[in-house]
Amino acid sequence: MQRPYGAFFMSGERSDSTGGVVAPIAIFLPGLLLVEGTLPFYDALRRRRSSPRAAMRGTNAVAVGILAAALYNPVWTNAAPTSRDFVLAVTGFPLLTVRRILP
Fold this sequence. Notes:
By secondary structure, this protein is mainly α. Helices cover about 80% and strands about 0% of the residues.
Protein backbone atom coordinates (compact mmCIF):
# COMPACT_ATOMS: atom_id res chain seq x y z
CA MET A 1 0.00 0.00 0.00
CA GLN A 2 1.33 3.40 -0.95
CA ARG A 3 1.63 6.10 1.71
CA PRO A 4 -0.12 9.44 1.25
CA TYR A 5 2.02 12.31 0.00
CA GLY A 6 1.97 14.20 3.29
CA ALA A 7 3.14 11.14 5.26
CA PHE A 8 6.44 11.23 3.37
CA PHE A 9 7.29 14.63 4.83
CA MET A 10 5.96 13.82 8.29
CA SER A 11 7.93 10.58 8.65
CA GLY A 12 11.26 12.38 9.10
CA GLU A 13 12.81 10.94 5.96
CA ARG A 14 13.36 14.47 4.58
CA SER A 15 15.54 17.15 6.10
CA ASP A 16 14.21 20.44 7.46
CA SER A 17 15.64 22.35 4.52
CA THR A 18 13.47 20.36 2.11
CA GLY A 19 10.37 21.35 4.03
CA GLY A 20 11.58 24.95 4.05
CA VAL A 21 11.73 24.89 0.26
CA VAL A 22 8.54 22.91 -0.37
CA ALA A 23 6.31 24.87 2.04
CA PRO A 24 6.53 28.29 0.33
CA ILE A 25 6.08 26.68 -3.07
CA ALA A 26 3.00 24.81 -1.84
CA ILE A 27 1.59 27.99 -0.30
CA PHE A 28 2.19 30.48 -3.11
CA LEU A 29 2.06 28.39 -6.30
CA PRO A 30 -1.75 27.92 -6.43
CA GLY A 31 -2.38 31.66 -6.11
CA LEU A 32 0.25 32.53 -8.69
CA LEU A 33 -1.18 30.00 -11.13
CA LEU A 34 -4.67 31.37 -10.56
CA VAL A 35 -3.54 34.94 -11.23
CA GLU A 36 -1.58 33.90 -14.32
CA GLY A 37 -4.53 31.90 -15.65
CA THR A 38 -7.16 34.60 -15.18
CA LEU A 39 -5.10 37.63 -16.21
CA PRO A 40 -6.00 37.42 -19.95
CA PHE A 41 -9.71 37.22 -19.11
CA TYR A 42 -9.38 40.11 -16.66
CA ASP A 43 -7.76 42.31 -19.31
CA ALA A 44 -10.50 41.44 -21.81
CA LEU A 45 -13.23 42.33 -19.28
CA ARG A 46 -11.48 45.55 -18.34
CA ARG A 47 -11.51 46.81 -21.94
CA ARG A 48 -15.27 46.37 -22.35
CA ARG A 49 -17.76 49.02 -21.33
CA SER A 50 -20.88 48.84 -19.18
CA SER A 51 -21.73 45.72 -17.19
CA PRO A 52 -18.34 43.97 -16.94
CA ARG A 53 -16.76 47.18 -15.71
CA ALA A 54 -19.52 47.56 -13.14
CA ALA A 55 -18.97 43.96 -12.07
CA MET A 56 -15.28 44.68 -11.55
CA ARG A 57 -16.14 47.72 -9.42
CA GLY A 58 -18.49 45.55 -7.38
CA THR A 59 -15.79 42.93 -6.92
CA ASN A 60 -13.40 45.62 -5.76
CA ALA A 61 -15.99 46.89 -3.27
CA VAL A 62 -16.50 43.38 -1.93
CA ALA A 63 -12.75 42.92 -1.45
CA VAL A 64 -12.50 46.22 0.44
CA GLY A 65 -15.47 45.21 2.61
CA ILE A 66 -13.90 41.85 3.47
CA LEU A 67 -10.63 43.56 4.38
CA ALA A 68 -12.49 46.09 6.55
CA ALA A 69 -14.36 43.28 8.31
CA ALA A 70 -11.08 41.44 8.92
CA LEU A 71 -9.57 44.62 10.35
CA TYR A 72 -12.52 45.20 12.67
CA ASN A 73 -12.90 41.68 13.98
CA PRO A 74 -10.48 40.36 15.41
CA VAL A 75 -7.88 43.17 15.14
CA TRP A 76 -9.82 46.22 16.29
CA THR A 77 -12.00 44.43 18.84
CA ASN A 78 -8.91 43.05 20.58
CA ALA A 79 -6.79 46.20 20.24
CA ALA A 80 -9.40 48.64 21.59
CA PRO A 81 -11.93 46.72 23.69
CA THR A 82 -12.94 49.66 25.89
CA SER A 83 -14.01 53.22 25.13
CA ARG A 84 -10.82 54.52 26.77
CA ASP A 85 -8.71 52.49 24.33
CA PHE A 86 -10.80 53.77 21.44
CA VAL A 87 -10.31 57.42 22.46
CA LEU A 88 -6.58 56.84 22.87
CA ALA A 89 -6.32 55.29 19.40
CA VAL A 90 -8.44 57.97 17.71
CA THR A 91 -6.44 60.82 19.27
CA GLY A 92 -3.05 59.14 19.13
CA PHE A 93 -3.09 58.20 15.47
CA PRO A 94 -3.31 61.77 14.10
CA LEU A 95 -0.70 62.89 16.62
CA LEU A 96 1.69 60.22 15.40
CA THR A 97 1.00 60.63 11.67
CA VAL A 98 0.17 64.32 11.16
CA ARG A 99 2.00 66.06 13.99
CA ARG A 100 4.87 63.52 13.97
CA ILE A 101 5.02 63.34 17.75
CA LEU A 102 7.26 60.54 18.98
CA PRO A 103 5.57 57.67 20.82
